[in-house]
Here is the input.
Amino acid sequence: MWHSAGMDPDRSRAVAVRIGVVGVGRMGEPIARTLTGSHSVKVFDTDPARKVAAPDLAWADTVRELAAASDVFVTVLPGPVELRQVVVEALPLLPAGALWLDLTSGDPAVTRDLASHAVQHDVAVVSAPMGGSVDEAAQNTLVFFVSGHDLAVARVLPILKNLTQDGGIRRAGTRAEDGQIVKLLANGLWFAHAVAAAEALLIGQGLGISPTELHYLLRDSAGGSRFLDEHAGRLLQGDYLTTFGVDRVVEELDTITTMARIAQVPTALLDASSSLHHAALDHYGPELGELLAVKLLEHRTGRQLRLD
Here is the structure.
């Protein structure tokens, strides 16, 4: 957990800011709604259907209009490609002294590059990629891996505190890209844990132990994981977690591969997970489903993991 040493808490709560949110999708819409309850918020999304789905939010007509009217510019976008497109357009329009708060799970190299451009426009940067589901966004129980200079982070605390619980704001470093590094590694571990747990459940099933019973036994064993605690039960109900596309999973795993190469670390286990997720993308196409690699394992095995 981040300890806010050197920060004046009264000052962090005192200043009302104009917040612009770009990306009003599955995660961005509940975030924008929560912030609207306590701040002045306008939103924009390149998909016109999003405005039709949420007409009660205050909409800007363009990202440039939104940027010009934002003290804090919040990005909640699918990935680094979309992020670069939006931020490159917005930075020259943001008021001097504004702050860019990025909640996207992206690419550390892209974040570092965009942050260097932001400095040239007198715009502070905080990266806070989020962990959690659509339901957790609606319930304001997200987790944020926050990185940036202390003064900039202090400015966004009143915003992030609306979106999480105690302990949900976790300090990841002072470089803009640090939060992205931590979030990607966390995701990479979860993807690997998911396929490893599915392999174990399929082995047990093939040897005569029901997936329901084996899940119960493994969850509280030395081989336990957050996947077994919180997500395997949904798999056993036939839910492949269809709020995140397998193409995005592969994009993140490819970024981790690049990070590992830069760090000069061999990653046999993460590479195996990546290979299986690439195969799932090839087999199913860019469909929604964080667990499509598990679905592919079931397909190859000829059995499904389901509740008894």
Observations:
- DSSP finds 14 helices and eight strands in the chain.
- The beta strands are 18-22, 40-44, 72-75, 99-102, 124-127, 130-131, 142-147, 164-173.
- The radius of gyration is 20 Å.
